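user: can you give me the structure for this one chain? tokens are fine.
assistant: on it. calling the predictor now.
[tool input]
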Amino acid sequence: MRKIKTKLHKYLWKILFTILLIIIISLSVWFIVNLRDLYRAGELRPTRGLNRNHIYKQTASPDQIQGWMTFSYVNYIFNLPPDYLSGNLNIQDSHYLNLGINQYAKMKNFNTTIFLTNVRESIAQYTKSTQ
């Protein structure tokens, strides 16, 4: 009788451990999915080092913009209003902030060089108007 209780006890612990493991994995997946959705919606932004970006902000010029940069990064570096580029460049995609400039241009079948030039000119226009 005691041997049966011991086996039953071990079996219950295995079941309990499996259930807890499933709960932890499902909560982790749920957390990651929600985090990704917040990031795509633009409500969550990665933190950046203050000193590094502060220095870069002072010396940034529109000519330094590269195609790999995301729109949110460009907005941050040049302190642009969140909807400035979308309005100026007629961007309709609500998730454009998290896309790279070249990535967006390729997605919309634009010439990447011309689109990058348009982004640079748009930012140059904004910096001139705010000085």
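assistant: here you go. Helices lie at 2-40, 50-59, 71-78, 84-88, 101-107, 112-129. The chain has two domains: 1-44, 50-129.
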